[in-house]
Specification:
Keywords: Cell membrane, Membrane, Transmembrane, Transmembrane helix, Transport. This protein is mainly alpha-helical. It is globular, with a radius of gyration of 22 Å. The protein starts with a helix and ends with a helix.
Length: about 375
């Protein structure tokens, strides 16, 4: 039987949840300014490189002045001609921003999934988001005559959300009374397999569209424009805010559900909120870029190695690091076989495949010891 003092301590914790987190969590949870500054500088450098690199040579000072001229109440003569300005603001800036948005969303979603499942191998496509997006995009490409325009990203977004919702509903129904997270993963695998079969069936209805379908599946940001960015930006912003706000709660979850409950935390509610936000971030990325793998595994793992394991650190640095990583991958994709262009998913797979093996071996050694 708990003593009176123990009961009073429990009641105080329930009234003031998270007021005094465990000392080891508090020590790990400080985001050092230097790490944030370095990551931000790297991201800014890769973003600028994405705007500079291309078939048309643009001067660095001209690009910087043109960007500064777009700041309200700032007027600078960039010296760029009309054609160069159109190349910069209609092609390169949207593409660089889209690569940053997609990379950031996939990385922060990966960190969120890994926090929920307590598994460094958890992936943004774990719960059927990729398979659902593939079905949605394939159906529009196959069934809509002519150029579907923005119908493909919209259908991919809806398909990704529906895929995750179906996996969660199935896992929630089957997992009552058991290990909810393990059941949810298995439900995601089952839903992904089923939706992949549906996608294959739809593809065969119009075999002449296979090239367009596989181009979308392999991923890329070459079709970026301001309208697409405007469509997904609000959802990306909401999911980012929610995930960043749950960094400390994920730290508490990492020490166990019982410890979290003693601090007044509803583990189930936190998991559901983070899953929804991470899935929304994944859907935003998949809708405008296609399927780009491994970003959500590589970036959070590197951040943990360099900056610590607290999710108050991992989430914001993964956001910036993922944006920088995909900027670099896009630069490689459009320069390595000039004048052609590699699918972005191929570039990330070249990096992520071996990296996944390294992470898998590290996890295996940790389990064995």
């Amino acid at each position: 039987m708990p003593t009176t003092a123990e009961r009073q301590t429990t009641r105080r914790r329930a009234r003031r949840p998270f007021a005094r987190p465990r000392p080891d969590l508090e020590g790990r949870a400080r985001l050092r300014p230097l790490a944030l500054v370095v990551t931000t500088v790297i991201f800014a450098a890769t973003l600028l490189a994405g705007m500079l690199v291309g078939s048309a040579d643009l001067p660095v000072d001209g690009v910087l002045k043109a960007l500064a001229d777009r700041i309200p109440f700032v007027h600078v003569d960039s010296g760029l001609g009309v054609i160069d300005e159109n190349v910069l603001f209609e092609l390169r800036v949207p593409r660089a921003l889209m690569a940053a948005l997609v990379g950031g969303m996939l990385a922060i979603a990966g960190a969120g999934y890994q926090g929920v499942f307590r598994n460094p191998l958890a992936d943004p496509y774990l719960l059927g988001a990729a398979a659902g997006a593939g079905v949605g995009a394939t159906m529009v490409i196959v069934l809509v005559p002519g150029d579907p325009g923005y119908g493909v990203p919209l259908a991919a977004f809806v398909g990704a959300v529906c895929g995750v919702a179906l996996a969660y509903a199935l896992g929630n129904t089957a997992g009552r009374g058991g290990d909810g997270t393990a059941t949810l993963v298995l439900a995601g695998v089952a839903v992904s397999s089923f939706l992949a079969a549906v996608q294959t069936f739809v593809q065969q209805l119009k075999a002449e569209e296979l090239q367009r379908i596989f181009t979308w599946i392999l991923g890329g940001v070459g079709s970026a424009d301001w309208h697409q960015l405007g469509l997904v930006a609000p959802y990306a912003l909401v999911s980012t805010i929610v995930l960043l706000a749950h960094g400390r709660l994920l730290d508490v979850l990492s020490v166990g559900d019982e410890e979290a409950a003693s601090l007044g935390l509803s583990a189930a509610r936190v998991r559901l909120t983070v899953l929804v936000a991470a899935s929304l971030a994944t859907a935003c990325a998949v809708a405008i870029s296609g399927l780009i793998g491994f970003v959500g595994i590589v970036v959070p793992h590197v951040v943990r190695r360099l900056a610590g394991g607290s999710y108050r650190i991992v989430l914001p640095l993964s956001l910036l690091g993922g944006a920088a990583f995909l900027e670099v991958a896009d630069l490689v994709a459009r320069t390595v076989i000039e004048p052609g262009e590699l699918p972005l998913g191929v570039v990330t797979a070249f990096v992520g495949g071996p990296f996944f093996v390294i992470v898998l071996r590290a996890v295996r050694r940790r389990v064995d010891t």
